[in-house]
Amino acid sequence: MKILFDHSHPFLLAHGGFQIQIEQTKAALEAAGVEVEFLRWWDDRQRGDLIHFWSAAGTGYLQAARARQLPVVMTTLFTETCNRSDAQLRRQARLTRLVLGLPFGEGVKQQLAWRAYNLCTHNVVGLEAERRVLEWVYRVPPANISVVPLGLSETYLRAGAGDRREPHLICTGTITERKNCVELATLARAAQVPILFVGKPYHAADPYWRRFEKLVDGRFVKLHPHVGTEAEMIALLRAARGFVLMSRYENWCLSAHEAAACGLPLLVPDQKWSRERFGPAAHYLEPPGSAGNTEILRRFYEAAPSLPPPAVKLHSWGDAARELKAIYERRLAR
């Protein structure tokens, strides 16, 4: 069995969790005996049994693959959409059906990803909240959806709790608007709670990054440059007092799971992804801008040394690879 990985967005344009997911999944599949190659768009002699497309493939792409009887499994991150309220999802579903049912505008419809979820061979997501998006909004049959957990490396799974000796909380991830880093830094200064931010911007000229830089004071807003090794990140996590995140939205959030693996209590946004993954075992912020967040952050900081990490199952990339391998085999057997 030979699987071809394809993706529409070059990693050099945007680093982050999706890149880690793709790279780690490839390595774990190979360790499980599955041959995996990145699809070489220029090579018409490359052969494979199935394409795993990481994001929503275009309808033309899927139609061409179907004509060649080449199955396409898609993994899509419904990061913002899966955190919408049920009422918002129902409205989105009505709009989607209305647009797709119009007797004109076929050229525009071909540019939308909406049809892709039913044209592909199978859909893979990480959360039940994302499964609901596919079922409710795009009417994908349940049999054509699998929920496969994201994993952690063995290094993280073996890390365990550290001495948590540092007097700061820690926030890891790209310094960008979606992570609400400026808002969290502003909150840290208002609550007088030290937070160490570990990460870098997508590019140094980003105006949001410039705003964030001005808030770094070395006291309540600390900055550690992006780290290049797991060992260095684990050392920073195990030394911190607790983990805090204030993103506008996430889906699985590898950073939060890495922090939990390193023994840290979590303070995260109160959203569908976080409730599904951590339930009552995490601590929750109100929406950004809420007056109550200053006190919530201060109380979490004071209590953090005695708080346990969330007792949730942490998966390995090997676990994810075994589930994907079974999906590939079922689809190829048809």
> How many DSSP H or I helices?
14
The stretches of 5 or more residues where confidence is low (pLDDT under 50) are none
Structural class: alpha/beta
Strands in their spatial order, largest beta sheet: 2-1-3-4-5-6
- Fraction of residues in helices? 40-55%
Share of residues in strands: 5-15%
> Care to count the β-strands?
12
Largest β sheet strand count, sense and barrel closure: 6 strands, parallel
Q: What is the string of SSEs from the N terminus onward?
A: EHEEHEHHHEHEHEHEHEHEHEHEHH
Distance between the termini: 14 Å
Cα-atom radius of gyration: 21 Å
- Outline: globular
> How confident is the prediction overall: mean pLDDT?
93
Task: Give structural notes.
It is a single chain. The protein is of the alpha/beta class. It is built from 14 helices and 12 strands. The chain has helices at residues 17-31, 59-67, 86-100, 106-111, 116-119, 128-137, 154-157, 181-191, 207-215, 230-239, 254-261, 272-278, 293-303, 317-332, and strands at residues 2-7, 35-38, 50-54, 72-75, 122-125, 145-147, 169-172, 195-198, 221-224, 243-244, 266-269, 283-285. The strands form 3 sheets. The protein has a 6-stranded parallel beta sheet, with helices on both faces. A 3-stranded parallel beta sheet has the order 7-8-9. It has a 3-stranded parallel beta sheet with strand order 10-11-12. It is globular. The mean pLDDT is 93.
